[in-house]
Structures
1.
Amino acid sequence: MPEEKHEPKPAVGNEFNRRDFFVKLGLGSLSIAAAGTAVFAYQFLSPNVLYEPSPIVNAGKPESYPLDSVTLDVNSGIYVIHAKEGFFSVGAVCTHLGCLTAWKPELGIIACPCHGSKFQRDGTKIEGPAPKPLPWFRTWVSDEGDLMVDRSAPIRALQFVRV
Amino acid sequence: MAKTATEYFDNLRESRIWRSIFRSGSGSSTLHRSLAIQQNIFLHLFSTKVRRRMLNLSATWYLGTLTFGTFLILVVTGILLMLYYHPSVPQAYADTKDLQFVVSSGLFLRNLHRWSAHAMVFLVFAHMFKVFYRGAYRPPREFNWVIGVILLLVTLLLSYTGYLLPWDQLAFWAITVGSNIASAVPLLGNKIHFMLLGGNLVNANALLRFYVLHCMILPLAAMFLIGIHFWRIRKDGGLYAHQSEPATVRAKAMAKQAQ
């Protein structure tokens, strides 16, 4: 109601009146609350526990992989390869857009069914659209004698495991 | 002299972007104020003019607004809880525990949801008592009272269906007992029990049905009815004010004539 409005005293210099003080106080508290809400929302939306499969895969006994064989593990998305230099493991997930690639024994290459990328069995790229070679994963033999692969640990290529 | 917050807001209201969203610009004439209400999809449900004394605490105790406030809190916290909850038998209880002990702020949100639910049921009853004892349920507002009674039922059903979702012993037996009460309905009782649970036992189907009711059907029904409920306040002549009710005015005039 305009007729009931009490005009606040004009501010002089750096002074401000009571109404301005409370407006600033109110807006300040709202900004702090909004910032806090944003932090809480971010923390809430990032899960603290994931129910995803472990990145470490037990690939079984090395003896089960014949020499010169390429074996795809569909569930974990890795190839276990027994070359004459030793064992190694490369990722089976295409570096283009994440499709699962397949080993073509008749051609001796790894091929992606989605967009036609092709790789050697050591992961090097033959042709695109994949931008990068398939990664090598850290591979070792456990105390029980099983071949282990850590999918979360890419390593430099050509580091073979001898059994 | 530094600009005041009001001046900043007036400048914002004159800007092109603001004017493209809200057509009424700054200004405090009666026309400006009416347009600001009428041209806003949410505000146009309400009256453009309200009697000043109807905004006092004593008129309504703000019980209806507070109820709506708890409903908004429940919608927001409920949607956030849905992000971590799977309505399936193996996962429901574990997800509830995760919300309490693992998810950041999960305990806070779950408690806020629960306490707001209790507060909403309390406030709905308080609102109805206030309306009843003021006589605000009488014509021409009788249909809005009926909508209010349906909203009470929706509120209670929301409470009841939400009760099952933690999938603990309390939930299981409460819904077992509650659904058996439904089977006391003459003739149709057993059919209602079967349809409500999606089977003969409180099991996976019942959990999913209660989840869908709790998170989709009942909230949508509540929003729909709340929209009508608010709109009817304007259509039925605004909030109830005894002195200016047509019946009171008529009775006063008659009494004056009789003198």
2.
Amino acid sequence: MNIIGLLAQLFAIALALFLAPLLTGWVNQCRAWLQSRTAPPLLQPYYMLHKLFNKDVVLAHGASSLFRFAPFIVFGCMVLACAIVPTLSTDLPFAPAADTIALVGVFGLARIFIALAAMDVGTSFGSLGGRREMLIGFLAEPALLMVIFTTALISQSTSVATIVETLAQREFAIYPSLAFAGVAFTFVSFAENARVPVDNPATHLELTMIHEAMILEYSGRHLALLEWAASLKLYAYSCLGLALFFPWGIPNGDSFPALLAAIPLLVFKLAIGGSLLAIIETVNAKMRIFRAPEYLGTAFLLAVLGLLVRLLLETRV
Amino acid sequence: MSDLLSIDALLIAACAWFAIGLAGLLAPRETHFVSKFLFPAGALVGLLAGVVALNFLGQAPQVAVLAIGLPDLPFHLRLDNLTAIFAMLIGFVSVGISIFGAGYFREGEGTAPGLLCLEYHLFLASMLMVLLADDAYAFMVAWESMALSSFFLVTTNHQHAEIRRAGFLYLLIAHVGAIAILLSFGVMTGGAGDYRFDGMRAQQLSPFWSSAAYLLALFGFGAKAGLLPVHVWLPEAHPAAPSPVSAMMSGVMLKTAIYGLLRVSFDLLHTPLWWWGVVALAVGLATALFGVLYSTVQSDMKRLLAYSSIENIGLIAVAIGLALIFHAYRMEALAALAMTAVLYHCLAHAGFKSLLFLATGSVLHATKERSLGKLGGLIHRMPWVAWLALTGVIAGAGLPPLSGFVSEWLLLQGFLFSPGLPHPWLNMVVPVGAALVVLVAALAGFAMVKFFGIIFLGQMREENLKEAHDAGWWERAGLAWLALLTVLLGVLPTTVILRIDAATRQLLGTGLTDRMREHGWWMLAPISPERASYQPLVFLAVIAASVLLGRWLVRHLYHGRVRRTQAWDCGYYFQGPRAQDTAEGFSQPIRRIFEPMFRMERHFPTARDEQPYYSVKVEDHFWHWLYLPVAKLAERMSGLIIRLQGGRIAIYLLYSFLTLIVLLLVARP
């Protein structure tokens, strides 16, 4: 671990912190266009964050120290996730800290804390949101792991950096299994990021909501951190998806020119991904919560199919 | 210490525990003497035993012969690396439990404290002897004294009929298991009559007989560990026992069964067949899924933890299965990976599950309440217990950077290699098992959120919880010790694995350390860093740095103002503690999604009910599928046999006479 590497790593984290709200703003803008609404400014999430940080925190009487502590933990977990997922380079010093399995663990840790914080004040909405979040979590994680297994079998590694290097920088090959895995991953990331077929980020006080129900009691800087963490999660998932399925263009090195050259491509890919996300969200309707097992079960089956395709077809060449 | 052999030191520890137990009998009603003097002394012995075992790791086996036992059959004892791992586990975990016990046991709760002290320390000593035993006879004697002493500990509050019932069930299944273990040893002697483990190792059994021995051992040790379908005693016995005893049974005693299974299947029967592993894997997956599903729907906090123990034992069995499969195909490096997962999960589970059981003990003492539906909001009254329990909860949910995650990570890494198995369909089926493992881990997260959220968070569901008090200093120290173990096992996996690798090496002939030593102590990379790596310290550091930096920046760039007000009531005026999820409500999605897995009796109110009520009762399918039919069969058999037993002496004399005649006819020269 040298100084340049560390600086490159810090640069990647700073870029994530900066780009994540922008990605959320972009998705919101695309969605507004598709739904024939007047779009909010692209920078709206930054204004929101600034406003929320300036506001007082209003705590409920029953809130414990865990409630005040949790947003920082959730934020920290998401920063770590963004540090691990290769965005600009595959050769970053924090990348060996956690492989894809540990990455799932990071998201799990954040999930537990946010669900516990939701239960802390003791309102009916909080515990409802907490339990639903855990429900989505245990349905999504097996599917996500099967996706990871498929990619790991191709590259003989669970380290994200190695997977990207294998797929992007060795000889070009078409893997049918990755198609299945990619669709399954898309399904899972919609569920994990509280997006439309499973949850609706645009509603408040609807009985079907999950993520918004959990953060209902939060205000001020705590809410700002949670919102920021949510956009960081979307950013991390998008980058993970790009890294696993469209890894081309991520350089293997920590020299700053290479890093800077990688930024436009990353922004381009994220913009495409964000608009696709908006399209899928617009053409779908929110499901009932008990349709979620079917939805994520489909994702799981697709991921297992991908794995079997990999084992049956691609290894016996 | 150089001229004192480690095995002697461990024997002295066992004797010291026994002596401490006997000392309790001197003043059975002197609570202060027993709890403030004898239990801390027991903890000290535990610490010494743990340190001795830890230091021994990596050395050559030591043997000893004790001249007690039958005239021509003395006790053979042996200390090797496998024994040392588990002795270390007993030692270190018992430290926390004994310190906690010093503050926990008090006057007027069933058995006299002195007697309890005897049972408790006898239990500890016999567990240590189980590990040291090197012949079937010594093993069974220790095994039985372990079962009996724990039976008396479970029935501490024997004035309640349900506790006596739970104790009886425990004793019954323990003995069914013990018979299977005894038979397994019998098969392994191969008719040679040599009951020393050395003799069993030397036997070359045919595949049929070694399979028979393996299956008997799996059943027998499975009955003690709580594998399906002989798990039913666990959720009954754990809530019945006092919390330190539950912690000891769940954290430590279940691991002696794992030890036995490892000893038999890897050491005594040295050539496993591939399908042994498949059996263990399948049983383990079923057990883990069953355990975690039932643990999410429980309303009693100790029952929830008991089912969670079943789940963890299931995961351990999965890892054993994987190790057996790899071992059978001579893929020793991968078997070593799975074996490390087994040993690591034993250590991790011992730490965090004892911690959680002890925390329920503190809650129980503070509130006199075991039902989740009547707890809530205790983090305000018991911050120490709550924050220490949170450590156990995160580890129990298998999340980084604590101990539960390391073993799960190793297990999943092991699964990733299963497509390389040289078998036509195993390499397809086994990887999908990994998805089940992840499902189990995620469901465990659900159960743990339920456990912590409903006990410690939210509003207090009952008025009397306002008088709850935090645990005393002894209890806090015990909890803190176990939390420390959980954190250390979580953040220093490489250091730990370098130690426990000696046992892996002994069982499989190869270990993980050759490759691991090349990387730094902070990096866990069992195969190679390109393949997979995990650095919990960096992990923790990044999270901690972003938490601290984030907090500092927010405070300095903006402000730290906080106002307190009512929680938002959504326009409804009545938002009391009753509006929160109950324990049943929290697990409703699980009951709905996995409905066929449960046997439920539900009562829903209709629109016209004058006094509407809602109730749900979840029962174990196995009671109705297996246990009740067997009980009925036993009853019918005894109904038939009772006809022979008229109660009149004349008839019995007639039986003896007839038997004599028949014997004379049969045995005619």
